[in-house]
Amino acid sequence: MFFAGLFAIYFTLRSTAPALWESEAGLLNIPFSLTNTIILVLSSVTCQFGVFAAERLQPRATGWKISQWGMVEWFFLTYAMGAVFVSGQIYEYAVLVSEGMTISANSYGSAFYITTGFHGAHVIGGLIAFLIVIGTAFSVKNFGHREATRAIVVSYYWHFVDVVWIGLFLVIYVLK
After folding, report:
1. DSSP summary character for residue 102
2. Domain ranges of the chain
3. Where is the chain membrane-spanning (predicted)?
């Protein structure tokens, strides 16, 4: 519901100042953002492989091949991809601010930074959750159904964050 409210703010502000939207949207680096989006979406794939390993009750790798990776290895890769996404967002913010688009510059800047910023905060929350699940896998004597369930719940959250980003990306970067 929170993100639905953010989408509503975005569409409301957009409908009241279409010329502003057109000029400010021209500052966005769509190829860069698309690459960053692909990284985030692929992180859902690696996350799901971690879930499959957790469901097999395999917390860690049994060998060096990717097919032998456990939940920890897949979640570490997912964490790294999520961190790259957040770093990309920070870089994008720095570029946009240097071009004069700040959160207080106009309604477009406010809507852009609020929607993408809250999403970024949720991604950071997911990264913290991955670290907790990975740490738990190392701290328990026997990796069981409780730990696997924890990993699965974190994956639900991660997939949700990815789906929300796809919606944001389409609305902010693709729809004119």
Report:
1. -
2. 2-174
3. 34-54, 74-91, 111-135, 156-175
Q: Which tokens go with 124?
A: 């950071």
Contact between 23 and 110 under an 8 Å Cβ cutoff? The reply is: no
User: What does each C-alpha distance from 97 to 25, 40, 92, 109, 124 come to in angstroms?
Assistant: 14, 23, 9, 10, 21
Checking if the pLDDT of 93 tops 90, the result is yes
In angstroms, rounded to a whole number, what is the distance separating the alpha carbons of residues 37 and 29? Answer: 12
The verdict on pTM exceeding 0.70 is: yes
For residue 153, which of 119, 118, 113, 126 has the smallest C-alpha distance?
126
Burial of 27 (C-beta count, 10 Å sphere; 0-12/13-18/19+): middle
Reference 151, options 96, 65, 76, 67; nearest CA is 76
pLDDT tens digits, one per residue of 100-112:
999 999 989 999 9
Q: Which helix (H) or strand (E) holds 49?
A: helix 30-55
Q: Is the pLDDT of residue 176 over 80?
A: no
User: Which DSSP string corresponds to 8-41?
Assistant: HHHHHHHHH-HHHHHHHHTTS-HHHHHHHHHHHH
Q: What is the tens place of the pLDDT at every residue in 141-155?
A: 999 999 999 999 999
